[in-house]
Amino acid sequence: MAGRDIAGDDMDMGGMHEETANKNKSFGERLVSWLGRLHTMVIHFPIALFIGAFGVELFGLWRRNRDYQHVAHIMLVVGALGAIAAAFLGWFAGGFYLTDRNPILMTHRWLGTLIAVFGVALAWMAARHRKGPERSRTLYWVLLGLMTLAISIQGFLGGTFMHGGINHLAF
After folding, report:
1. What is the pLDDT of residues 4-44, one digit of tens each?
2. TM spans, by residue (predicted)?
3. C-alpha span between 89 and 96 (Å, rounded)
4. In whole angstroms, what is the distance from residue 163 CA to residue 50 CA?
């Protein structure tokens, strides 16, 4: 083993395996696979921004300062854009099927799509409330709370694919 770079050898072997597998795929198949692999990289920003917007809104309520609503609105806009990208890439990762034999994958697919749709709705609602601050924010708060819950569930479901099944959070 002396003088041998084990990590380098492993990476070369893995690289050769991937290269051999890619030789049998068309450009389109390689592109779809690559776009699907970007999903796991993109998901973290909308997760952080949506949950952060909820926290910023709560902080603004606690401080009784409406200026935090503007910050939350910006976070929701960027989070919604990120959620659209994550959902789009997720369809590449999971395949373009409306139903799936795996109920966890199907729930993850459609919940992610709904998170992107409701993310846009929340950003729009936040903008409306900034223009008309006298409007009731009850529906906005309910949707923002449900979004935070949905993202938590979505993260758990996604973790089942990446970290070893439904019991991946077992202690």
Report:
1. 444 444 444 455 566 666 778 999 999 999 999 999 999 99
2. 41-62, 74-98, 110-127, 139-162
3. 11
4. 23
Q: Output the 3-class SS for the chain.
A: CCCCCHHHHHHHHHHHHHHHHHHCCCHHHHHHHHHHHHHHHHCHHHHHHHHHHHHHHHHHHHHCCCHHHHHHHHHHHHHHHHHHHHHHHHHHHHCCCCCCCCHHHHHHHHHHHHHHHHHHHHHHHHHHHHHCCCCCCHHHHHHHHHHHHHHHHHHHHHHHHHCCCCCCCCC
Q: Determine the Cα–Cα distance for residues 68 and 65; give it in Å rounded to an integer.
A: 6
CB-based contacts of 22, cutoff 8 Å, min separation 6 = 30
What span, in angstroms and rounded, lies between the C-alpha atoms of 25 and 109?
25
**How many other CB atoms sit within 10 Å of the CB of residue 83?**
32
The pair of structure tokens assigned to 106 is 């199907």
The pair of structure tokens assigned to 36 is: 């699907």
The residues, any chain, with a CB within 8 Å of residue 114's CB and separated by 6 or more, are 150
Q: Is the pLDDT of residue 93 over 80?
A: yes
